[in-house]
């Protein structure tokens, strides 16, 4: 059998949206799930040349190691974040206190991966975060006990699987922007996160917005758009890398 | 054009499950939505002959009036309950204090019809009820304020549309049986009540059970099964009509 | 036939979430679709007593007129907004320039109702809005021509039916928060707005958030949460009515 | 490649809902499917310190062994129940005859795992159970032959996959509370258990309630709520561990 | 405004599948739901010319009357069957005893329309039928009491809405061919008949076959195919009209 | 009650995509379903000023008449096409023989409306069409008899409801481009046209393409793109109006 | 870790529906997918004792071997049928010519497994079969060429994945009973077989019946019910094993 | 255990649709996903004997190797195309300049496999292609920069996952035929490609057609039908192999 040679990273990678930071102030995340190690490594090298940080989501340990072996730019820091299932490429910046804090809440240990992805994506853009786990609505007292401390956050990201009621309860209690992230944790009618997604969209609490299931990165970028919108943060060009 | 004559109530009505009360202790409700006035009237006459009460659900005012005109048994009381959208046939019994009270809760005025159907079905079986409206989870303080009074109820029926989080929050707070009734109130992803149904089934609160969307009657009968199960209530034969 | 008397507005209306403005700074909107004129009028009278503005969504002309006939508080201004399909109760406040402007975009005339509901809900909370219609993605030049003027807005609300691509394209072009509102306009696979909803959630543009189908009010409240979050707007208590 | 260190059990585990037994009288089950062995072991140690029994559902043999290796509290009994796919932590209490018996029925060998999870969860709360397998509706005589013996049970839990008709037939024959558990056994339209779930919810038998697909634990807790509700069982505080 | 003239019955009606009786021995039923009275009348006239009987399904009284007014062939008998919601055109043949009997069962009055459509379609093909109503599975004794009499039927058609368990229970009790017809009677998860359809397809009873929701005509034609297949009935050409 | 005045046609109508003909050579169709008569009339007047033909789809007789009453440009021909449910505005051009013929096929009278919409949209762009009705796959001989004549068509549009098998069978028999249009005719699983849509997408015939359910206009525009693509038809600018 | 001992085959296996052959004349097939080798072996031993043949569906090679190792009844023939993915236990009977032939058709090699399961289940009940592969509708001539030979069959079973049009085309051409079996072969909208199922149910060909996706056994049992129904085959008791 | 012998390639393979090239001018692709290596090899040998090229889609490296080992016709070139996941059998022809070029676009590296399958299928039929990757709509400038060069293509195939907006934007910008191919890349609501499919079908851009999810081969064949339809390409018989 003949076989097509191991194809080189395709030239079209030159079409990466490097203009994105200038336009909307965000680092383009590489969605790692449907890409192989060669493709990811090629993209990271390309980002490096362009002087950009890199964030690759949905990368398990074994693929992370395969990427590491293929990278030429040895001096750039490649880090795999196990719980967040993400790779970062380059040194993460320090938090910028002027941007304010984002609180990331989740109902239980099973939602932790998505919450960590959101935290990491914010950290990459110099945003400070605070994580609260195990504040699910089946034991309300745990959430009620944190209400005062939550007043410090400018934006709240609430990750929840199963019936996804946490963001609804939260948005009924606090005045800040609340972004719901449905988590694909569950079984039966909640398998895949659709029940949580629909629960959040159908919420009777006013002003709750939602992102796709498991989309911690998306919630983080939505929070970033909000944080930068205040006076003194007139757009993307002030975000250093 | 020839046309088939207005057909008489078919003889098979004789096959009504009149044995049901003996077997499981419940009056058979007539589901009125897909039946016309002739069919409903024929069934009610038949129940009358058998000495049974009658409950017809999902009957609007105009159909109720059409049924009334067709009934021969003029001395039996026929009553239309507008909010519950139900017809009752015969005198409702007094509550039996020994059975205990059932609390029926709902999130808002829009869920009222389903809650009233549940109340009426219980009243038909001599069960006392208490109704709490406007205790939705977007304003938790209203529910928390009622917690103490809810301890009086032996069973709680929680009706909710939209995201349907009320039964979940409730079941996390009280030890009694909680029966969730999704309500087909909502729009977009919550239209038809499916989001509420899935939210209740996916609930992270332990021991919450659920009935079909808008099935106030079913929740009432489930509560009745529970109430009769305690010592001193050894089954259906003690329920008088 | 006996019939239950025309029941008075139930006492539970006293449980309206009047504490909401203090807690999260928003006027509670009354969802009018599944309520009858008696119920709506009773709630509006109650809001009046509490000194609150009222907003009732999803009210057609005929129901609006029926509500008007039932209201006692004749001096309070009741206005029906035909395109937005909303009733307002009380005098709308002037825009507060300090809050900033919200741009509301939609793809075509068919999406106008939802966009108008969003505008009205913002106006009720003193927020200035700007409406752009007919900027759908099948004729991109119309949207590209408005990019510069959109820089004035602090938040963008993009309403779209059919495939719902407008918010995706928009969020790839501007750095501000973008809230997508799927509109239940379409047929076949887009009937009911689900294709638009899924298209927005699945968006490859980072940081786009979404609300339920046709939920113009919800998008407005999400924008309000964002507007108030900046320095000088420390929460809900500064919103006058 | 750098890698984040093997992270210690997060401090938030301190937020386990240990108050649950006092509030609603139930041991919190740990849903093991989306948790790794480290996380489960950490939670079990924490429960031990709090003097609680532990129940972890959805744990296969290999994960059970990995948990066992990580546990410090060697003297506490850790048992893996193969058919139920559960771990228990601590000595199971003896049945309390005063609570009454729960009958657990299932249609065939394929539903056995879910039935066993329900039995185990009840045993953990001192409830006696009786298991009946192979009483599916395609051979009705097997179920009819057991009707008399079923009169002993105070609550019936009926697990069924495929078309899920068992609970419907059962609820038409007996007066006690019947809880349906759809089982994710089947193929084609019944794959995942949705056909069984819908069949149970749509049931024409009055007063049948339902829990999520495969949720044996949930059905058990619903039964427990019922058992405790009778006279002489005034709530959760009487349940010893 | 100009308007296209009331268009005459299009010439393509000449393409009616009049060859069908020769090929597969069945009269083509006209599905009346999406056709107007002109179209139906034109098709009936055409059938008349070809010497065929006509059956139009899903025709309400008012449309039936409009069809009657447009028909020229006054001497041919046009009959509207109210419960079956069908029009027949021509004299129905007498039953052919050699074909054997088909039993048509349904769970309740709400399923009657579909059962009657099946009966009528069989009668049009000279097949004797027997109707059993109110034999739903929530009161099994009614069905069990008929088992012996059902042995007379060569084929059984079982119509059921809600959870649709009747055909499953039936196919577990009798050896003949059983054809399940899901009925679009129900609400919530059973609205539209999908729960019943899935329940029948997922059935654990061996050898149950199913037709589309509400398709009484289709079930009848399937029974006809079976009846004609026996010795002495070698195909369609022996069916007289 | 105050009411917002009858709002004038909004200024944004100026943003109609009049550039479309230059860019892609097509007249923009106005989707009439969710627009009222005022909105449609305003758009048509605007098109008139721009020298464009107008096509409004999904307009019933009564709305067509309301539009007619509101139009000022009395000399422009407004025509309502009853079967196609469309309004045209302006004189339809003669067919351009150089573009070639499009065959529009459908399975039965119920699919006629969608087929007629496709024909009309093509006629508006000077394309000759040929209509074949009643060539459904349950009587194959009718389609096979037309195979030779179909060789004249450059593109085939096949409209089908129910199981939607017509385009599959067709694309297995002819070499030309075949565009499938699912039709929302059917009931049960085929209600709304989804079964037909999925059947066409899943087709085992190679090279069949599909448009949205009932989208006759879309299929016509796809055919137009194909017709213009041949030598001598280098793009949109040659299409006269 | 303690572990529950390898549990013996549960005693409830004694409740196998051995009465089935007497009642409806069919061997109960064991659905092997969700059972392990111990459970299957225990059931087979039990069938042996009762003098029954055994058929286990959905068994891959490795599980078949594990079952073989556990069986004590060494002299009984255990055979694994690779393409049909079935185990048979006992000697298959010779075909009974009096029952007539069943034709099993499928569209392509990918549907072969389901077709073979149907053939095997019929063979187990002494029914002769004939298999036709590669008669899909994208190349109609192959099916048309077989029409004459198909007249020999008393029943036709048509297996098809993708759009599932084969049974529709077939039922339009032949007068015998046609049973459609959707096959879970496909991708995108046809993944899992749902498009094929819906296509068959929605079929415009009269009298086509359908079984669950991949249910070759069910189609075979439906054919058996039909075959036995003719004169001279008065029920199940004449089927020898 | 006895086992059925490794069955030889079944004789029915003789029924391959070899007539297809004469009829519709296309090589039949073998869908490799649900076939094993023996089956694929047998089909390829058969194609070879008939003098045909072969294309097998959805073949991973390991299955490709297993096929290679089973092929007897050693001199025929068998090639595995890794990115396209396809096997070709025979020498690919040179592009025929007279047919014109097809542009294949995709949003990112994850869509590459589907795009490559389309390219390969076209190459097999002598069609020249051009590939553009990374032209997703979240960075519109990349697509706008290619508009001029796209004018060279006679047909455009646009592959997109996630929200699938690329074909919509494209069809709003160019006059040629645009074929959308949804790609099963995504997660949450876009998992499996359904959101992309619906987005394309719901598109507000006129004349966009769609094929099944991941169906690169189907899109290629649709393009081929179009290319051959122009003057000088009167059908399939001119396509040389």
CATH architecture of the largest domain in chain A: 3-Layer(aba) Sandwich
Overall radius of gyration of chain A: 19 Å
Instruction: Return the CATH topology of the largest domain in chain A.
Output: Rossmann fold
Largest sheet of chain A: 5 strands, parallel
Mean pLDDT of chain A: 88
How many separate domains make up the residues of chain A? 2
Number of strands of chain A: 10
Strand content of chain A: 15-25%
Q: Which runs of chain A of at least 5 residues are low in confidence (pLDDT < 50)?
A: 8-14, 231-241
Portion of residues within helices of chain A: 25-40%
Q: Which H/E pattern describes the elements of chain A? A: EHEHEHEEEHEHHEHEHEH
Strand order of the largest sheet of chain A: 7-6-8-9-10
> Which chain pair has the greatest contact?
A-C, 46 and 46 residues
Protein structure class of chain A? alpha/beta
The CA-CA distance between the termini of chain A, in Å, is 48 Å
The gross shape of chain A turns out to be globular
Quick one: CATH class of the largest domain in chain A? Alpha Beta
* Total of DSSP H or I helical runs spanning 4+ residues of chain A: 9
Oligomer: homooctamer
Descriptive overview:
The structure is a homooctamer of 241-residue chains. Chain A is α/β, with parallel strands linked by helices and 241 residues long. The first copy, chain A, folds into 2 domains: 20-89; 97-229, Rossmann fold. Helix content of chain A is 31%, strand content 17%. The first copy, chain A, contains 9 helices and 10 strands. In chain A, strands 7-6-8-9-10 form a 5-stranded parallel beta sheet. The longest helix of chain A has 13 residues, at 37-49. Chain A is globular and about 60 Å long. Chain A starts with a strand and ends in a 13-residue tail after the last helix. At the A-C interface, strand 10 and helix 9 of A face strand 10 and helix 9 of C.
């Amino acid at each position: 059998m003949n076989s097509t040679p191991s194809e080189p990273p395709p030239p079209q990678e030159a079409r990466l949206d490097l203009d994105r930071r200038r336009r909307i102030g965000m680092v383009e995340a590489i969605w790692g799930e449907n890409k192989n190690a060669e493709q990811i490594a090629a993209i990271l090298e390309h980002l490096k040349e362009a002087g950009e940080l890199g964030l690759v989501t949905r990368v398990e340990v074994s693929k992370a190691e395969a990427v590491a072996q293929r990278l030429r730019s040895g001096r750039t820091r490649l880090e795999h974040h196990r719980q967040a299932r993400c790779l970062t490429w380059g040194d993460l910046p320090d938090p910028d206190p002027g941007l304010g804090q984002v609180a990331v809440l989740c109902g239980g240990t099973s939602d932790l991966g998505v919450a960590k992805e959101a935290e990491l994506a914010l950290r990459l853009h110099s945003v400070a975060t605070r994580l609260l786990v195990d504040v699910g609505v089946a034991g309300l007292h745990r959430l009620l006990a944190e209400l005062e401390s939550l007043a410090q956050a400018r934006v709240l990201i609430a990750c929840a699987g199963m019936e996804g009621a946490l963001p609804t309860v939260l948005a009924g209690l606090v005045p800040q922007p609340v972004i719901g992230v449905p988590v694909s944790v569950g079984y039966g009618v909640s398998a895949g996160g659709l029940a949580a997604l629909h629960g959040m969209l159908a919420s009777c609490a006013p002003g709750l917005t939602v992102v796709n299931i498991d989309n911690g990165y998306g919630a983080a970028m939505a929070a970033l758009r909000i944080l930068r919108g205040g006076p003194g943060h007139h757009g993307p060009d002030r975000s250093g890398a």
